[in-house]
Amino acid sequence: MPDFDVVSLLDHDAPSVGDTAPDFTRPLVNAEFWEDASLSDLADDGPVLLVFHTMAGAFPATYVWNELRDRGVPEDVQAVGVSISSPYEHKSFLEARDVDARLFSDPAAGVAADYDLEHDLDGMTGVTEHRPAVFLLDEDRTVQYRWVADEWPDFPDYEGIEDALDDL
């Protein structure tokens, strides 16, 4: 595993279990194309596993999506990511990782701000990315499960995610 400096992240006020997750519209990318889509439209079609991650191709994002791919997400749950990466970067990432998910492109980190998940990168003035976090949402966008990183790098509680998916 690469050698990283561990950074404690600031307190946050991300949505909690029982809260309604904020809606947003951004380009949603799959391995073939992208188009603007809203979180509420996705949730109307069934539960959503919403994964906030570092930029596509960065080690933490690669690890998270490899782990979710290998563990599997039930077919009736939509696995959806959010990061600052462009649609082009997301498309390449999905193809390279063979991940069955779609990824929202949020280059200005506005969704991260709405969820209180901004992470200003040290030594990069004006560059903000998404703090790692996972939310399992039901059809009403009600948060059924939440994990938010307390430090960087930090990785989701995959057993906790599996338990929450089993409880749907």
From TrEMBL:
Top-level taxonomic group: Archaea
The name this protein goes by in its record: Thiol peroxidase
Lineage per the UniProt record: Archaea, Methanobacteriati, Methanobacteriota, Stenosarchaea group, Halobacteria
Keyword NAD among UniProt keywords: no
Pfam families, sorted: AhpC-TSA
Molecular functions per Gene Ontology: peroxidase activity
Gene: tpx
Key words of the record: Oxidoreductase, Peroxidase, Redox-active center
Domain Thioredoxin: 15-168
